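[job 0417] fold request received: DUF5996 family protein
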Amino acid sequence: MENAKTQPWPRLRVADWTDTRDTLHMWTQIVGKVRMAYAPPVNHWWHVTLYPTARGLTTSAVPHGTGVFDIEFDFLDHRLRLRTSDGGSREVALEPKSVATFYGETFEALAALGLEPRIRPVPNEVERAVPFAEDHEHKSYDGAAAQLFWRQLLQAERVLGRFRSEFVGKASPVHFFWGAMDLAYTRFSGAVAPQHPGGAPNCPPWVMHEGYSHELASFGFWPGGGEEGAFYAYAYPEPAGYAERTAPFYNESMKECVLPYETVADSADPDATLIDFLRTTYAAAADLATWNRAALDASR
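[job 0417] inference complete; emitting C-alpha cells
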C-alpha cells in the first residue's frame, strides 16, 4: 500500500484488503438502510445513498421529526459519528469487530439519540445474505486500507463531478450505492426504458424496475473488476452497436465497459485518461440511442 499523501491516485490492491472490504460493505449497508428508513423516497433510489466527505462517507442530513441527523464514517479517526440537530452525538469505533457487533453498537447509539429506525436487517446484492445480527464471519478492519479506499473514492468523485458538469439534462448526484459498494453517476435521456429484468442477488425485481425505469448511461467506480478496482460504464437499454463502438473497453461477460483503476493511476495524465473513458462511453450510448445531445449536453 502506498502513502496516500504522496500518491494523488492512491494504490490499493483488492487482494490486500478483501476481508476489510467485505466487512466494510456490510457496515455501509447498515448505515445506508438507516438513512433509507427516514429519508423521503426519491426517484431511482437516490434517497438511500452515501456521499464522500473530507473525512469519509456520510448519509448527509436526514430528516427526523422537526430536525435532522447524520451518520458519518470518519476514516481519518476511524469512528462512526452519529449527530442530531438538537446537539446529541454518539460514536462507534471503527476497528476489527464482527458485523453483528457493529450492528448492535450502531443501533444502541441510535437509540440513545432517540432514533429507532425499522430496517430489513439483511444485506442486499450479495450472494450470501446473512442477517446482520448473525454475521460473525465478517470482522476485519484494516484502517489504512479503508482510508486508501476512501481516498480512491475522492479522486473518482472529483473527476466524475467534472464530467457531470458537461451535461444539463436529468442526472444523478455522484453518490455511493451501498448495495454494490460503488460510487456512481447516471445520465438520463428522458425516455422511458423497457422494464428491467432484475437479477441482482437478494434484491427484489421491483428495486431494479425503479432504478432503471428510464433510459440511461451510467458510470462509476467499485473495488472490483481489476487488481486495484475499476471504473465502469454501461447503457440501459444497451443500444445496438454499443459493444462494437466501445470495443477497447467492453467486457463481454459483464456486458459493460471496464477501465482498471491501475490503468488510470499508471497513466501520464490520470484525469485525462478517465475523462476520455467517460466521454467515449457516453457518446457511444447517446449517439446510438439517438439522444437529443443538442439539448442535453452543456456547450463547451
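[job 0417] notes: The helical segments are 18-38, 99-112, 143-164, 205-211, 242-245, 261-266, 270-288, 293-296. Residues 166 and 299 are 8 Å apart (CA to CA).
[job 0417] exit 0
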